[in-house]
């Protein structure tokens, strides 16, 4: 991606968390692992929203390729390897201020993709939206949250979600063992997605939160300015901005795990999995 920001939604779940986006003033190339593990026979709806800005020396562009690799391997982004579908959004020379969409469909044995209509939509804020359907043949753990209760946007839900996030904050302060106990189901999905054990996933994906040498310090829990946000077609909830954050004073950056919760048929709150 060059000169802009992107949001990615998978089945109405924001990939980077609510009100979060991948942004850059120059260029960024990265590979991202989907933590919302698909199951054989699933059809996943993926929407990408891209807001591009023309900057001196940089023309806005967004390029995304969807595919899978052998468990435990992490090929470079856009390396010469198979993929299911690739989409690219670039400025349209025939429409000043507008964008055009290009696609390349290759397909993999366990993953195919196709654009959904309309293929490219310009939203009221000027962002370009492209939606795809991915047909998945990879058999990973089922997504239990999809069987959860429809949530109500009220004070009770907010208080209960805040309580769950307080538990997560305490676990992150206590270390890896407590993190596994509190966030275990989500971490199992993450580990299965990237071909790791849960311990390996914690040591790598959660490194900024457990490795003190990286300079990130857990901040005091503060939900006073947070609001309740419900996504996942009404079944997932979190607080935004997150009251669970780490700060690196040396580089003046903040980070934090994505903490999203659902309520099962018995009324028990659980981390997304």
Automatic annotation (TrEMBL):
Q: Which domain of life is it from?
A: Bacteria
Q: What is this protein called?
A: Uncharacterized protein
Instruction: Give the lineage.
Output: Bacteria, Pseudomonadati, Pseudomonadota, Alphaproteobacteria, Rhodobacterales
């Amino acid at each position: 991606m060059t000169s802009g920001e992107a949001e990615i939604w998978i089945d109405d779940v924001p990939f980077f968390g609510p009100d979060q986006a991948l942004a850059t003033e120059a260029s960024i190339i990265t590979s991202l692992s989907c933590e919302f593990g698909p199951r054989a026979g699933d059809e996943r709806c993926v929407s990408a929203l891209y807001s591009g800005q023309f900057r001196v020396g940089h023309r806005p562009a967004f390029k995304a390729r969807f595919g899978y690799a052998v468990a435990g391997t992490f090929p470079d982004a856009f390396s010469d390897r198979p993929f299911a579908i690739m989409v690219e959004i670039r400025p349209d020379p025939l429409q000043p201020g507008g964008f055009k969409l290009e696609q390349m469909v290759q397909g993999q044995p366990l993953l195919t993709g196709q654009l959904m209509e309309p293929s490219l939509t310009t939203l009221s804020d000027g962002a370009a939206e492209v939606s795809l359907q991915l047909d998945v043949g990879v058999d990973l753990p089922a997504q239990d949250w999809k069987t959860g209760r429809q949530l109500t946007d009220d004070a009770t839900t907010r208080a209960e979600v805040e309580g769950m996030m307080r538990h997560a904050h305490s676990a992150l302060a206590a270390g890896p063992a407590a993190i596994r106990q509190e966030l275990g189901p989500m971490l199992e999905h993450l580990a299965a997605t990237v071909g790791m054990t849960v311990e390996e996933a914690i040591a790598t994906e959660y490194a900024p939160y457990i490795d003190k040498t990286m300079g990130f310090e857990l901040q005091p829990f503060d939900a006073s300015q947070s609001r309740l946000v419900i996504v996942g077609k009404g079944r997932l909830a979190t607080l935004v901005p997150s009251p669970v954050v780490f700060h690196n004073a040396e580089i003046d950056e903040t980070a934090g795990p994505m903490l999203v919760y659902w309520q099962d048929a018995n009324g028990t709150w659980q981390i997304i999995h």
